[in-house]
Design brief:
It is globular and about 55 Å long. It contains nine helices and two strands, in the order H-E-H-H-E-H-H-H-H-H-H. It has a two-stranded antiparallel sheet. Helices cover 51% and strands 3% of the residues. One of its GO terms (cellular component) is ruffle membrane. Keywords: Calcium, Cell membrane, Cell projection, Cytoplasm, Differentiation, Lipoprotein, Membrane, Metal-binding, Myristate, Nucleus, Protein kinase inhibitor.
């Protein structure tokens, strides 16, 4: 709505210190992101050209307000009057955004190493879990993904990684529509250090 766009514009201006573009370092002042274990992946996702719906690959150095709106559209809530086709499109967009967060080399495939990296980052704040345990969790999840997506595999077969189509299968039945949101859009003052 116009009110939501106006609120996002105020937040954009607050984050960018009234500048016309945002850079990655502007996200350093967001308290809700400070202790998030996958903070770097979230911030990178805002600058990933795939999420900005740009043709060229890679990461942008800065984003303008239109780019910010494009990324924020992935987090918009489900509207009660959406039909099944609209709901499916919103769901697919949200899952694609997540896929891009995992696919750090931007080759269209989430490899075991990329998946391990995300799982290790997610579990890094748990003092009772060793790095080896996090790797085992990631390996088990990747094995489950292989079985879900590729079916039974022979002893000499190797699962190269999760494609976007595989990722859609994995997320089937999970209520991503209501769970994927951003809390840092509140307009609370951001503490700036001199």
């Amino acid at each position: 709505t116009a009110d939501q766009i106006e609120q996002l514009h105020r937040r954009f201006k607050q984050l960018s210190n009234e500048k016309p573009t945002l850079r990655k370092e502007h996200f350093d002042s967001i308290p809700d992101l400070e202790f998030n274990p996958i903070r770097s992946k979230i911030v990178q996702a805002f600058f990933d050209r795939r999420n900005l719906r740009q043709e060229e690959p890679g990461l942008a150095d800065e984003i303008n307000f239109e780019d910010f709106l494009t990324v924020m559209s992935y987090f918009r809530p489900i509207e009660p009057d959406m039909d099944e086709e609209q709901l499916e499109r919103v769901r697919k967009d949200k899952i694609k955004f997540l896929f891009h967060m995992y696919d750090s080399d931007r080759d269209g495939l989430i490899t075991l190493d990329e998946y391990r990296n995300v799982v290790e980052e997610l579990l890094s704040g748990n003092p009772h879990l060793e790095k080896g345990a996090a790797r085992s969790i990631a390996d088990g999840a990747m094995l489950e993904a292989a079985q879900t997506c590729a079916g039974p595999m022979g002893p000499n077969q190797v699962y190269e990684g999760i494609t976007f189509e595989d990722f859609l299968k994995i997320w089937r039945g999970i209520d991503i529509e209501t769970k994927m949101h951003v809390r840092f859009l509140n307009m609370e003052p951001i503490a700036h250090c001199c």
